Amino acid sequence: MTLQWTAVASFLYVEIGILVIFCLPFISAQRWHSIFKWSIWNHLSQFRNKGFLTMIIILIVLFLDALREVRKYSSADQTKDAKLHPNMFDHMHMKLFRAQRNLYISGFSLFLWLVMRRVVTLINQLAVATSTSAALQTQTEGANQAAKKYMEDNELLKQALTDAKGGGKIDNSEEIKRLKKEVQRQTEELKSSKDALNISKSNLDTMKKQTEGLTKEYDRLLQEHQELQNQLDSKDKKDI
Questions:
Q1: Are residues 182 and 159 in contact, defined by beta-carbon separation less than 8 angstroms?
Q2: How many other CB atoms are found less than 10 A from the CB of residue 73?
Q3: What's the whole-model pTM score?
């Protein structure tokens, strides 16, 4: 095996090893994402795309060269000539075997190079999606706990007010005051949320109106362009 095909075979083995490491189940996508965010990769970012494309071009050239060798040594004329001389026949088969081996090595190297790039992209996307999902789940749990707490406070306040209307004695007046303040605070938060929602709706309506205006303007310009084009075509026909 020549030096160039030894290098391609070594590159293929390295690709297989890296992909096997990527497939290890005990290394999470977040861990790989943190590794991919090391500062050394930021320094190499300007050469990363160029190196990727350069390697693709080299592997494609080697693949086409190996394909040419396979077609050369498997042609019918070469086989007929080789059958006349046994030693030449064995030599031709050895050349054909090497060409096929080089074809498989370069082809799989090119394929795994593309697969490895795609796997790295998918790992980064999975890590980001997992982090976002965890953050949303935490926010949802916090909102559920707050909602449960508010419901419990409201139930206590309703019970206390019911007892007060029924003429019962209320010993825990401080608790009632606290609950009233809590209800007032929740009412203010609800009002502020409602105001924010109204502002968002008004902004959305404004954006819709702007979009409709831009659409009408685009249609008008398109119609004018079509009219000018028709006039230009008619003028060209008259000149002819």
A1: no
A2: 20
A3: 0.56
Name which of 128, 114, 105, 142 is nearest 5 in CA terms: 105
Amino acid at 199: I
- Do residues 86 and 100 lie in contact, with contact meaning Cβ atoms separated by under 8 Å? no
Q: Cα–Cα distance between 103 and 213 in angstroms, integer?
A: 60
Q: What is the pLDDT of residues 210-227, one digit of tens each?
A: 666 555 655 666 666 567
131, 53: one domain: yes
Three-state DSSP state, 75 = coil
Boundaries of domain holding 35: 3-140
Q: Is residue 218 part of a domain?
A: yes
Burial class (CB in 10 A: 0-12, 13-18, 19+), 223: exposed
Residues 188 and 70 in one domain: no
Instruction: Answer yes or no: do 33 and 116 share one domain.
Output: yes
Residue 163 included in any domain = no
Total tally of structural domains belonging to the chain: 2
